[in-house]
Protein 1
Amino acid sequence: MAPEATLQSEVLKALRFPIAVGDILRKRLVLKKELLKQTNLVPTRIAILGGSTTTEVKSMLELFLLAQGIEPAFYESGYNRYAEDVEFENPDLWNFKPNIVFLHTTWHNISEFPELLEAEVEVERRVRREMARFESLWEKIHAELGALIIQNNFDLPRLRPLGNLEASESFGSVNFVLRLNAEFAGYARSHSRFLINDILYLSVQVGQAAWFRNSYWYNFHMALSPTATVSLAHNLAAIVKSVYGKSKKCLVLDLDNTLWGGVIGDDGLHNLILGKDHPVGEAFLDFQRYVKGLKRRGVILAVCSKNDAENAKEGFSHPDSVLKLEDFSAFKANWNPKPETIREIATELNIGLDSIVFIDDNPAERALVAEQLPEVAVPNVGSDVSGFAEVLEHERYFEVDKVVQDDLSRSTYYSSNAQRSTCQARFSNYEEFLASLEMTAEIGAFLPVYLERITQLINKTNQFNLTTRRYTSGEVEAIAQDPAFITLYGRLADKFGDNGLVSVLIGQVSDETIQLDLWLMSCRVLKREMEFAMFDALVERCQARGISKIVGVYIPSKKNSMVAGHYASLGFSPMGGASEGRELWCYHVPPTYSPRTRYIRRTAEALLAAASAESASVPSEV
Amino acid sequence: MTHDEFLLQMDEILDLPAGTLRGHERLEELPNWDSTSLITFIALAETNYDVYVSPGQIVTCSTVADLLRLAQSESSSS
């Protein structure tokens, strides 16, 4: 069950769209107390290094993170000590060992603006100097603290002495800020573990007048008003949520008056309101485009509609429908209660209910789903389609810290999964079905090209996950380069398509023993014997490094009961040293080993890559 | 905003059970009266009364009732 499911809905309501800033400010302490009653909170350590006062930022960020099931511990720099704390290695910061460093700087912290009529070449030098100043901080944080960095870009200066020329002239302050922001963005594109908190956008959204207030600046050195601080914290929490893999995965949509105007069963295909010829039809068209965009970047789409199935499907043959039937990975049109249907969708897609967002124009349906499935996010979108996308945007349900290739092919996977299901139905024997899939696996030590996907999988896989340990991308990168670890990733393909990178294993080596700190697999490939292929690869590496004993760790959680028997099924024996909430299992590596894999062929390229990565990571004395 | 409504809001700001504050309480004796609650009070005065109350003015207040009087007087003079 999602952490939020245990909360009173009224508590979370204050933190959801439309956000009532006054309510949050007033109820701050009450909200915090309620949110801390949740169980299964994910701990994280965040250092806030401020170019202005950050007390309010910390207070609000804490609320929004707790609402996402993340419990932060904070380090706060002194006022405007963001650079000194890093440059002079403040021991309090170093001892804090942050997972995340948030650099809360604003335009007030730009050290030099161009002079009037300054030559372009000198302006460019100023840009370089400012970048060098920030880059030296970022590099030191990455190198010494190993933390993920979240860096504000810059909001715009409050005053414009040159008027509109501030934007167009190279020496204009607006122009200069936008150039710096472009440089920050360029750095983010070329560096992992570095994310931008886009306060330029936030300041526009909040409105410049409400974003910055002289009174708060001169009295408290708050670079943001309380209203702006709430907006910043909300956005920041969405970034952290994505880093910890807590973003939603699937958008479940009603059809009539949600994706088109009218009721297809009553009005018929040609009377639906959809398309540019009608003001409301254009709003439905735009919402469909927005949804299609979500699908393109990896959000799974599903339909949950009270309709006859054939009528419902016909709607997508409307000439103006941007969404097509094949865009949906699950399609349920029936007369059953919607909570029941959404449960079926979650089962069919192999995802948790807490990965789902449900959109329906009907408030009664929304209320029913919200009440019976508290894990499902049910935003109050109202009944006006022109506001649906805005609500989804504000809630930041699908925030991602990176778009990787596997995200783009996720819908393809779910579509080909339907073909797999059809194929499976033709076989009375499951093993014949597995053989018919013609599966191939690429298994090897972590490669730089896969680190983003590996981190993503580590932070969002809950069910087939033996320990549910979470790692930041920095930690994954460090482990990948550390010869004291054996790492494995696994990709699986079959005749219907590529399932992508679906399994990750991390083991720590000590003498002749390896302890498996992490072993997970995407639920996409359950019951495909991919875990056998991973185990075969692990045993091969153990044999190559003279490791005789594999210790498996199982830490039960509310979501991983499916792997309770995992080590027993692989021939491990229970061993002593277990503690409450932690089981230890032991496997003695035999001199000769018969592979468990029966239906998965390991590709030669992967074997070569793995061997080469292995030889590179094994110390010469071994 | 009535006197009672104001007191209920202050109860929430200071994480006290509804109905705790009566107005005569001394601010310096309230455990959660700190810089954050002070900023919250300023923000709420803006929201509720559309006035800006400065920290310097708040320093002159001794009791919860003084805070209400301050917000109301600023509101009537603006």
Note: Chain A touches chain B at residues 21-22, 25-30, 33, 55-56, 59, 215-216, 219-220, 222, 225-227 (CB under 8 Å).
Protein 2
Amino acid sequence: MKTKHITRKATRHISQNEGLIFEKSSPGKAAWKLPPLDVPEVDTAKLLGKQEREDLGDMPEVSEIEIIRHFTRLSTWNYAIDLGMYPLGSCTMKYNPRVNEFVSRIEGLANGHPYQAEKISQGALRIMKTLSDCLLEITGMDAITLQPAAGAHGELTGLLLVRAYHQSKGNARKKILIPDSAHGTNPATAATAGYAVENLKSNDRGMVDVAALAAQMNEDVAALMVTNPNTLGVFEQEIHKIAGLMHAKGGLLYMDGANMNALVAKTRPGDFGVDVMHLNLHKTFSTPHGGGGPGSGPVAVKKILEPFLPTPVVITKSDGTLGFEYDRPQSVGRVRAFYGNFGMFIRALAYIFANGPDGLRQTTEDAVLNANYIRKGLEGVYDLPYSTPSMHEVVFSDKVQSKKGVKTIDLAKRLIDYGFHPYTTAFPLIVHGALMIEPTESEPKEELDLFIEAMKSIAEEVEEDPQYVLDAPHNTRISRLDETAAARKPVLRWKPENA
Amino acid sequence: MLKAIGIRSIDDLFSPIPAEYRLTRDLAVPRQMAESEIVDWFKQRAKENGEGYASFLGAGAYFHYRPVVIDALVQRGEFLTSYTPYQPEVAQGTLQAIFEFQTMISELTGMDLANASMYDGSTGAAEAVMMAVRITGRHSAVIARNLHPEYREVLNTYATHQAIPLKTVSFTDSGQIDLKELEKAVGDDTACVLIQSPNFFGTIEDVEAIAEIAHKRGALLIVSIAEAVSLGIVEPPRTADIVAMEAQSFGVPLGFGGPYCGVLATKEKFVRQMPGRLVGQTVDKNGKRGFVLTLATREQHIRREKATSNICTNQALVALMVNIFMTVYGKIGLRELAKQNLAKAAYAADEFSKHAKVLFAGAPRFNEFVVQTSDDPYAINSRLLGHKIVGGFPLKKFYPELGHAALWCCTELTTRSMIDTAVGLVAESEGSARSKDAQPEEVVR
């Protein structure tokens, strides 16, 4: 049967072996050169005394061509958006435009020092101001901070604002309500912000159970953290009622903006009752994921929370120039040194410029269209636990395939052989054996068809030869790794053999 | 595609959004721009942003040379456009690179192991304090006043909500932490002492003496390192329990303050309390070496509210820049690079001391020093700007007790002629300030 299922998208080819950089090191090799010193040489022993470092231990010594080859070879072992669809649900793996990279490296922007005088920082400040204005228009909120370095950092900032707000009313309150479908960062953040977490059950349509919320909502609850669309890709249709319930008891509505790619230019969280939300510039606004970061997690708020925003805040001064305002007595303080991941602001703004109002709307429509096209293509082949309409992502389950002993992770590993990155497995937790698929707007129909074909083919393989799927991937450099051994006796760094 | 899905129009897909909340107008954002227009817009902004100035600013963000291979490699799509390596079979490139990063950071900091990065030095320091609280079961922390002021502000934000009281210890005439005051401040409920070395004034702390004071009372020592290049020639804080470092100096552009690259390094016994991602070595089912994300039971996607931290996204691509930088300079180059920084700053400090007061002369320093002038540093700096020079960082805002003082920084990119020009202009301004002060006295005489 192995020949029957042809993977149209991928073929095996030679990839280079490459050891650790330390294994290539030998004394005398070098890839660096410094200019001759134009000031007097110093006696390091005299200047540093016992603080002088004698030796840099096992740091490598290699040549430039070895460095280029080393990292180039490593790079070829990665899957990437540039190679094909990356259907990770809730991760929004969209195309990362190269013009973003280009403009972020323009000298005056890349070399700007965070403490240079405001007079010579007007360019950077203008970028921050313009991006802020655009994000406020997109979210329908009133004020914003760009300081948080990532989504989870934005969540923390948002909850600190919530806490400061309640404190100003005389009671910080004790709890944060979080639906059982939420990302793990939500409860972890609530704990970091000093709140207790109370779980909120979803209803049979995969949405917040409004009746349950009404029962659980009281004056101890500071806020509800809701992701909309939620992690099932379902729009919370009663979001305005949810907001009303929260507000009636003095609580606030926090929206995790991880799935904002389904909403931009079609609806605005500020309009449907959200008080505070974060955005992930590395999801919705096309800044690259870079193998895990950097991200950027601006937090947008309604007027009532503005006094508490982290310092500094960008303001327009009386002479029309831009500046930072530090004197904000009610601020929660800083959440990061300097002003945030500025390089990501440049990229996100370039993305907004490249799209404009029409492009942003089209993007959202295409993202939702693509997800629904996949849903239609795989319906009946994989179990769809919730029939509620999908927005930008769709969640199936392995219910059919697990009867043959094949689980979501196994299907995902087999997908690798077909030339795709796996979808998100086993999340959200409310779906047993979840397959969470988000194609984004970037994928052309041809790529979506290849994906659907691959998923159908894998489903057939499960019926014909489940063991073959269980043993996947078959065509990668390495097979499945022993993760248990890695965690039991962690080897977290290289050491020379004779050590 | 609409037909395949079985709908008539794209609007049908958005019907779950209640009609009254559907946006029926265009967003008021700038119109769609062509690539050439986008490039032009940002080039204009760059011109308004100090392009072409010589700078003596450091203070937690350092201007070092970035070898061109860094950008050539990090812009490869396979690094740039990949996700967190949760699927190791298709992410060995990123995983092996992180493993090498962890190794080099451990080696440079003198710790047993390091994580795969934190947001930056400030949040890394705050996470280190929370880690110390978990390890010791104690609830307060002692912080050096010569720790980067913005790091202290961030820590203060985190600590307030974790109910961790902070005690601040001052510095002496050498710019170093006051050991006597420290001795008194550390108590039985102190989870950790957090210092910076080289500290915010650029002087190097006696880490061993500080470690002894902390450890005597059962507290951990956390050392924050903001200027990573110092590790090339300054003895690393081997007696520390946690090193919280900002690795921006290693090949990361200044970028108006970010993205940077925080890292935590620690002793093996504390690894399970460390936040952030970790890569470990293992084997596949054929016995072939490979790398995976490991010890995930510390993390939010598994432990939710019981996780060591809420951190998810880190600074992977920036860590890769750091990694390549460390590989380029390596064992010998890093030392030579650090030595040039040391020599430039020593020369500049000497030159400044002929015309103004260089503070904290009693302790060894790396590439930063504090110059006290009779005139206000803001006024001096605005005169320097006219000569396309960005002067030192005025300290009045954070350390009013130092009067008219500014923190100056020299790196391998600071030329002798830049130094001489800046010193000349400061000398001129000092000369005129002094004669202004002197005149009334002469009149009296």
Note: Residues 101 and 347 of chain A are 7 Å apart (CA to CA).
Protein 3
Amino acid sequence: MAASLLCVGISLQPASAASSVTASDFAKAMNTPTTLTYWTWVPGLNKAIALFEKRYPKIKVNAINVGQGGPHYQKLRVGATSGKGLPDLAQIEFQYVPAFTQIGLLLDIAPYVSKTFKTKFEAWTISQVSGPKGQIYGVPQDTGPMGMLYRKDIFDKYGIAVPKTWADFAAAAAKLHAADPTVYLANFGPNEADVATSFGWQAGARPFKSLGNNSYKINVDDPVAQKIAKYWAGLVSAGTVSTDPAWNNDWFAGFDKGKYATWLTGAWGPLFLAGQAKDTAGLWRAAPLPQWSAGQSVSGNRGGSSTAVIKGTKNPIAAATFAEFLNSDPIATPLLSQAPQLLFPASSAALHAPAFLNAKVAFFGGQQANKVFVAINKTVAKDFAWSPFTDQVYQEWQNDVGVAITGKTDVVAALATEQGNILKYALDQGFTVSK
Amino acid sequence: MERVILAKRSRHGKAGLLFVAPFMVVFILTLVVPLVYSGYLSFFRNRLVGGVSFVGTKNYIQAFHDHAFWSGLERVVGFFFIQVPFMLAAALIFALVIDSGKLRFPKVIRILIFIPYAVPAVIAAIMWGYLYGPNFGLLSQISRYLHTPSIHFLNGWMTLPSIANIVTWEYVGYNMIIMYAALKSFSTDLYEAASMDGANGFQLAWHIKIPQLRPAIFLCLIFSVIGSFQLFTEPYQMTPLSPAALNNSFTPNIYAYDEAFVSQNINYAATISFMLGFAVLIAASFVGLVSRQSRKRAINV
Amino acid sequence: MLCCTAYFLLPLIWLFITTTKDTTGIYSSFGLWFTKVNHLFANVKEVFSLDDGLYVHWMVNTTIYAVVGATGAALIATAAGYGFSKYDFGLKKPLFGVVLGSVMIPMTALAIPTFLVFSKIHLVNTRWAIILPSLISPIGVYLMRVYSDTAVSQNLLEAARIDGLGELRIFFSISLRLLMPGFITVVLLSIVSIWNNYFLPLIMLNSPNLQPLTVGLSGWAQSSISGASGGDSSIQAAVITGSAISLIPLIIVFLILQRFWENGLSAGSNKE
């Protein structure tokens, strides 16, 4: 009892002195009864939130799921347009941070976070949430280093070796499908713009580069992009990968029934499979992505989010403190790496904690999968940047390239169309563009 | 006497305005103002860089050349032509069959056909989405059992008919009831005379009932025109099942929504909404014209 | 004929059977038959507990929007139809023409502009944002005008006026009673259009607490395929069971009132 009273006393000071918030400001903010609304699609945050609310009893946090991805961002935009119905905090994936800073929706929390903030997270995640003048637009939460999740039982049954190069992968795809026409090595959906982008990240593509002052270099159809598009178009033409649209019930049923033997995705993959393909838990293993050259070790990132504070929140200090707490507290943050979230943390401490590194993950049949992904994480190139209109880019990719790859039409022409349309959109919106 | 009554009506005329006022006030707020505001917005542009600026008719010119808009408009027109005749014919046949008295349990059947109208479009789309699923949907389960090739409902040319199927399922009952109500109000004298002359049920329907149903059919037609052009909910709800086929400009409404909330071009979205409104006005007026012509012809016969 | 009826019932039968299955069962079992274990109770519990009982909010919202909206719409449509029918005033012809013409305006084409107007007057994300637009039923005005022509005779009005009753008094105590069947038809028409409403609430309402069932269930359906359900909660089953539960009151209300429907419609469709 005495200990908790002591805790209450201590908690009226910021956990570590914030950049420009005085102790009295902080105490005042954390003692003003506030309910923070947090839009996030990460489930089961109640334990972590309870820890925060215990430390700061006057602050309540309401985590609400308003949809994942598209619908979530649309709601934010609707709120931005009308000025009403906005939350205090929102989950923003890294690829959308520029889009939302462009419309001025994210609060710069640099003044409110602790002085040691930048040391708490993996360096490349900090660059994903930073602005050109040192602003911080979000607290990195999780990352998605790309790996290959594969069904060990299917590989064993048909004698497939774990492919190390993309050439191996293509050969394995042919072998597997010939052995069992109802199974495919992988699926490539016409709406998987983000997967294609991550493949590009791995292979060295850099489609967008900000030159400051709303000026961008745009290059979505460079030789790397063409190489990747042609590769997958080849597999589709050969009939060795399926082309089911991803992210719907039917696609999850595919995993559940063993139609797809691998999933090339970020470290957060198990989060989704655990709910939708329960029957296959324990049968999956983790491995690095196939490489373009033998012996190479490079990967890309897919997804990963930050917790951002929305401008207009009534208690920015409390909101920023919660965001930092959720993603870097020594007790709360590791909770997010367990079931049901299985998030791959951006917090360096959580990433390198022995409990995390050495965990035998049940979903992977007891494999120390985290070690595999931490190693992959180190090979993710740090200089990949996004456009401030990712929605539009993805939609353009889907309309042009996704359709071409799965529809077996000319992918190089499709890429050129995509480039042309994106340039036009950027110019229409007032940006300065160059190649 | 007539003149006295008319005079008395206008004496209290002002009271009429009082009764009409509440409707007109809400009408202006929720219909006229948005319409005018939408028109106003369509002459401006709001860019990510640079903010709002006046652009005159640029948005309309862009819309005229916008392949996405026209393909969406073409699609809803096509949708109208494949869905509406089929649905109205089915509604007509059901109404006639039920009215013929030759059916057992007509009331039950009438209600069962009408029930889908009580199902909101969103839920109808969710249900049919599950039925259509290529991997595990009910219809493909059945086709696998029967060893027939499974149909990919939301792919290629099947997409529009599959959506049309859902809309038909929802609204056949509604149209049937409109026609059935009309049928019920006709006098049966003509029928008796005709059957005494030896006409069978089919001839009765074709020569007597259907011509009298003309007003009801045209009413249904007008509602259908307005509805078809506005197609949004069913394809939007099912987009995840087939994002390539059900793309962001599948119908003009979906395109307007996409322009507003994904591409962030609110002004262009207003322009598209306006153009859609004009298209509906033209189409509905055309149907109204045809209806009046056919009535004149029927009277002149 | 029987085949046709089966077609109309097929999705509904599938729906109600599937309320007894859990997510794995949905994928693996035959759609029109049951699985070994009956999950109905668990599913219903899931529907009402998911997201802290959000489903109940949706039910309450849908009821409020439907009842308030439909009653309001029928009231002002009846008043307007009555006004057009029984009185002569200067603007009568043009106003009625405008009302009739507005039937042609696609409501969904107005949704985005209405959203923008309401944003400016800070009505977005409130209940009024949904109720106000649903109060206008131009078809209702037309139907009620036609109905007033026959149901309320001019002589009756004259007699009441001679007795010293004011116009409003006449309307509420005499005419409205005569107009009741038509009134109910407009209520029904409005209820269906309101509970079917999707596009407008989708844009207007950001807070899940204010959403009606259509938008809420659609949101859950989207979450279910995004996989955000994680390990334990089986949102798919909740979507299906939630949809089924929402249909029950709708179908019941429907069946009870559909007789009024036919009577009201026969008045309208013959006056072309």
Note: Chain A has 19 helices and eleven strands.
